[in-house]
Amino acid sequence: MGRPPCCDKVGVKKGPWTPEEDIILVSYIQENGPGNWRAVPINTGLMRCSKSCRLRWTNYLRPGIRRGNFTTHEEGIIV
């Protein structure tokens, strides 16, 4: 017995996200907050699975994500 699929995969877009899709996702999250990810593709009209929306937000679009080189302090902790 396995997990139910996160979406029905019919009509779901795969591949790179477009800037327009990013704008739609960010504006929806700013208005409604992160949380009910299953409602995101339904309410926004994005042809993406809810898991894809959640991962896009968490890994790329969320405010506060730090990119770039490690600081000297962080390098010291790692080494």
UniProtKB/TrEMBL annotation:
MF terms (GO), sorted A to Z: DNA binding
Subcellular compartments: Nucleus
Name by which UniProt lists this protein: Uncharacterized protein
Record keywords: DNA-binding, Nucleus, Repeat, Transcription, Transcription regulation
KW Metal-binding (keyword) present: no
GO cellular component, as recorded: nucleus
SMART domains documented for this protein: SANT (SM00717)
Pfam families: Myb_DNA-binding (PF00249)
InterPro entries: Homeodomain-like_sf, Myb_dom, Myb_TF_plants, SANT/Myb
Domain Myb-like: 9-61
Organism name: Aegilops tauschii subsp. strangulata
